[in-house]
Amino acid sequence: VNKKMFRYFQKYPEKRIMFICNIERVRNNTHSHILLRIPKEYDRHQVLELMSDYFKKLNKNFILFKEKARNQVGNVIYSTKKHGFNYRPDDLVVI
Prior knowledge:
Layout: H1 2-5, E1 18-24, E2 31-37, H2 44-58, H3 72-79, E3 92-94
Antiparallel strand pairs: 1-2, 1-3
């Protein structure tokens, strides 16, 4: 996604899209909460479409729920909810 949006993203870290993935394993529903940092000059919709296309190539059953956070702090707390008590380093992935 970064390469598609800006070819020289490795030289310019401020132009990178950052993904923080929190893998949540619950019975019959393993899923990931992904927090994104998208630079202001990128179109949010285009970034999400690229993510969806690439993930569908990896897994045809992939579904991307695109919801804009009503409250940024609340969204981060919800997305990382289990890291305060039962922290497992394998569950939090920064890409």
